[in-house]
Amino acid sequence: MAIELLKGNEAIAEAAVRAGVDAYFGYPITPQTELLEYMAKRMPELGRVFLQAESELGAINMVYGAACAGKRAMTSSSSPGVSLMQEGLSYIAAAEVPVVLVDVMRGGPGLGNIAPSQSDYFQMVKSAGHGDFKPIVLAPASVQEAVDIMDLAFDLADKYRTIVTVLLDGTIGQMMEPAELPPMKPRRTAAPGWALTGAADRSKNMILPFRLQVDDLEAYNLQLQQKLALIAHSEVRYHEQMVDDAELIVVGFGTAGRIAQTAVRLARRQGIKAGLFRPITLWPFPERRLSQLADDARGFLVVEMNAGQMVEDVRLAVGGQAPVKFLGRMGGSLPMPDDILAAIVKLDQASTRAQPDAPCTIEGPSMPLKHFVSVN
Amino acid sequence: MALKGRIVIDTERCKGCELCASVCPHVAIHMSDTFNAKGYRPAQWADLNNECTGCASCAVLCPEAAIRVYREVPARAVTTTT
Amino acid sequence: MTIESYSEAIVADRPKALSKTQSHYCPGCLHGLAHRLIAEVLDELAIRGTTLMVAPVGCAVFASNYFECDSVVAPHGRAPAVATGLKRVSPDKIVFAYQGDGDLASIGTAEIIHAAARGESITVIFINNAVYGMTGGQMAPTSLVGMKTTSSPFGRDVKTMGSPLKMSELIAGIDGATFVSRRSMHNPAEIRKAKKAIRRAFEVQINHQGFSLVELLSNCPTNWQMTPLESLRWIETRMVPVFPLGDLKNAAANNGLKGV
User: Fold this and answer.
1) CB–CB of B73 and C8 under 8 A?
2) Please, which contacts does A360-368 make with residues 24 or more away whose CB atoms are closer than 8 Å?
3) Is any Cβ of chain C less than 8 angstroms from the Cβ of B31?
4) Chain-chain contact of B64 with C32 (C-beta, under 8 angstroms)
5) What residue segments make up the domains of chain B, in order of their start?
6) Given CB atoms, is B8 within the 8 Å cutoff of chain C?
7) Is C72's CB within 8 Å of A206's CB?
8) Closest to C12 (Cβ–Cβ): which among B13, B69, B80?
């Protein structure tokens, strides 16, 4: 396969096609609509199912239906649309059918804007819907990584009969950069035993996203938690750079993690031993690895495009062994390398092993905004 | 001569809603004096005057599909080879 | 040698597509009857083994236990969307959604309207008993004017709560809808017509003729606080005038498909 100049949303769509997706149901919402448009052309070409639903709520329930038939089904949306999908996601989790969701985050809350953001980390990692369940959340930082992640997403969804969310922001969805698409995988023909394929010559299959009796539901939840524990044990993924001798670790996922790479290099040039830690699975969160890094590091800087969400998980993982500072940009602005570098330098000067961990400080953009309160 | 019929009521499935009794043209269904396992007083077939024709109105209206209806098949000559 | 012989035929029995499980429905509730009619049609058309059912949230949330076919429970109101997903990836299967009035006419109106507008090749069985049964008898979009329910304790007031929503008429007006019928289950004659309509709806799907829906007027003895017999009268005297019966749309020729 050749390297091509690909637009994120379209590359992700084609990668899903090559991973053998059978059905796509979606709804227009910036900044992911090109994914839907691409599928509108491509899926019928291959005799596969494409349907634009009446709403994201309709779309996720169509995905639920298709997944119940044992087919590889997916949808894509963005922040407000994903909010509409959360009821369906909870049912899908309870039904334990494999589903892939691509969530291209935009500025929030409310209508927010159509610029990129990471302000739905909590929505997807902490509470993708009512009830105790967690989708696997994969966060690519480039078009290439997004392409590679799609095949993994479908495999993990099938392997654990769960939801896998590919969580990126509008930057990756909208930008074009060179990437190589995988070869076309043959589509699965045999449906899994649990699938709804007609009880012609077997006892009926019932997919019931509920358990009425209390002890049944508790037993069922324990079973779900066991599955999540298994996933947490074996499916953690992250990317590290220059951490072996690093004294300061910059932590960021997706676009923020990618921009932080430059800042870490700039810091190194100034003789600051900085390293980059970029979680790829936001759930299961790489807490063990972070905790290990905290044994030696004397400071962490978390960079996000939100008001501070993953920083909480980093704090939990670091467990007070070292200060964890936060640099956040919102509204669709990107954290610039210089801002991150400045924060690294400040962290370098301020953090010694002795200093207790200061509370989360929201350092606003370099241009001070009057309503930004910096809590020290 | 009208065909004869009879019904069998699954008394454990019956919930004593009395709809079958309300629709039997010959009032041949009464509610039992006993109770089934669920505590319902099931319907009981009581075709004292042998009037049931197997019209199946009772079964058609039964919300629990608890009534099986038999109806005589018209007498016909059956030739057998001996 | 001729022998006069008399034998008995079974003229009414439990259909095979209906499971043996005892239903949880209240005594006299016509959900069970609707289940039986559907099961009889599945048997007659010999499609039980290729039929997939989508159950709603409501009293019929346990319907999966009562049919001998594969099924899934959809979120409240979303059955037409789940059915769409199922059907689109398994066009060779027969897919039907079973919904109550709260499910279809209230929270799920967008889903049912658009499934019909797409001419989705599914069959929807819509049970209209004018209240939310499972949750204890609240007002539904199909509650009659003046009707007292637990959430319209002073009677449904048109000024503040609107008037009954006539879903079959609404859906019959949608081009994508091929067969739309409203029947009732309040007496054997109407029940026989209801079964014919259900059968016709499944035939439309089998013949790839588009979207089919059958609305069945039904009862709720418990929440209407009536005896089962009184509830049938109430359907006849109060509901039928508001929800007239008949085939509202039959846009496809019945190309003589005979049950096996």
Assistant:
1) yes
2) A360/A308, A360/A311, A360/A315, A360/A326, A361/A325, A361/A326, A362/A307, A362/A308, A362/A326, A362/A328, A363/A325, A363/A326, A363/A327, A363/A328, A363/A339, A365/A329, A365/A333, A365/A339, A366/A336, A366/A338, A366/A339, A366/A342
3) no
4) yes
5) 5-70
6) no
7) yes
8) B69
Nearest CA in chain A to C46: A200
| N- to C-terminal Cα separation, chain C | 35
Q: Residues 6 or more apart from B51 whose CB is under 8 A from it?
A: B26, B28
Q: What is the pLDDT along chain A (376 residues), one digit of tens a residue?
A: 699 999 999 999 999 999 999 999 999 999 999 999 999 999 999 999 999 999 999 999 999 999 999 999 999 999 999 999 999 999 999 999 999 999 999 999 999 999 999 999 999 999 999 999 999 999 999 999 999 999 999 999 999 999 999 999 999 999 999 999 999 999 988 999 999 999 999 999 999 999 999 999 999 999 999 999 999 999 999 999 999 999 999 999 999 999 999 999 999 999 999 999 999 999 999 999 999 999 999 999 999 999 999 999 999 999 999 999 999 999 999 999 999 999 999 999 986 554 555 554 555 554 444 444 454 4
Nearest to B78 among C2, C10, C26 (CB): C2
Q: ipTM score of the complex?
A: 0.93
Residue C46 contacts A, CB cutoff 8 Å: no
C116 closest CA partner among C10, C202, C212, C42:
C212
Beta-carbon count within 10 A of C221 CB: 23
| B43 CB within 8 Å of a chain C CB | no
Listing DSSP states for A73-102 in one string gives EEEEE-HHHHHHHHHHHHHHHHHT--EEEE
The residue to which tokens 């006069």 are assigned: C4
- Fold assignment, A241-375: Rossmann fold (3.40.50)
Which class in CATH covers the domain with range B5-70? alpha beta
Written as tens digits, the pLDDT of chain C (260 aa) is 455 566 899 999 999 999 999 999 999 999 999 999 999 999 999 999 999 999 999 999 999 999 999 999 999 999 999 999 999 999 999 999 999 999 999 999 999 999 999 999 999 999 999 999 999 999 999 999 999 999 999 999 999 999 999 999 999 999 999 999 999 999 999 999 999 999 999 999 999 999 999 999 999 999 999 999 999 999 999 999 999 999 999 998 766 554 43
Of C3, C12, C27, the CB nearest to B17: C27
Structural domains in chain C? Answer: 24-252 (3.40.50.970)
DSSP string, A124-169: III-SSSSS---EEE--SSHHHHHHHHHHHHHHHHHHTSEEEEEEE
- Chains touching A, CB cut-off 8 Å, 3+ pairs: C
CB spacing of C5 vs B17 below 8 angstroms:
no
CA–CA min distance C84, chain A (Å): 6
Q: Point out the residue among C12, C15, C29 whose CB comes nearest to the CB of B63.
A: C29
Contact present, A and B (at least 3 Cβ pairs less than 8 Å): no
Q: Where in chain A are the domains?
A: 3-234, 241-375
**Domain spanning A3-234: which superfamily?**
Thiamin diphosphate (ThDP)-binding fold, Pyr/PP domains (3.40.50.970)
Chains touching chain C through at least 3 C-beta pairs below 8 angstroms are: A, B
How is A98-120 classified by DSSP, letter by letter? -EEEEEEEBS-STT--SSB--TT
> Chain A residues with CB inside 8 Å of C82's CB?
61-62, 64-65, 68
